[in-house]
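Re: your question from the hallway

Yes, I did run it. Sequences:
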Amino acid sequence: MAVRLVFLGKLADLAGADERDVAGPLDWDGLLTAVGPQLAAQVQGDKVKLALDGALVADKTTLAAPDGSEIALLPPVSGG
Amino acid sequence: MALHVHLLDKPFNPGALLGPFTNAHPGYGGLASFIGAVRADDDVRALELLHYEKMTRPGMEALAEEAAHRFELLGLLVMHRYGVMEPGEPIVMVAACAHHRRGAIAAVDYCMDHLKSDSWFWKREQRADGWHWIEPRDQDHSDLARWNS
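Structure:
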């Protein structure tokens, strides 16, 4: 089993892919390690939010993603 | 009360939707609509909107329900494109039907402010030198903040 990382917006450019599977389960430190230093710096910033299986994570540092779950990395939005 | 929320990957014709939406609400007092399109200026050649299926559609549905309740609407239509669009193509359409004009106009304004800077979309523009991600402007944030006062 694995945890799926989904990169949205400009984070997909930085990751070089829209999504990637990494070994699970995954916590905050595990996520930062899994995405590498460049993306980790972005993810640690206030502007990037995280969602676990479609639900926004209120405190990113408490992330606890079980095997088979999906973490979305969400940069600032812009629609319309 | 009917809510119609659609997330589309193909062009749509806003004019063709307005007639049926109006006809579906006999006895309404006011109807307002807004259509947003890819501007044909600057050197923007194309615009791409990305979405996240797990959150974008549920977020739009929650927004529509909130607007319908807040402004006591009879009906609300929200259309939003994703994918690559060229100048002139509609991106978004919101139409609201209410007993009175203020509710209809305010509901459209409210939905547009939230679709612009509080919905799960990511926008980039293709110019002569490549693609550029667009982040909300300060104006977008202050437009959104109006509804919390």
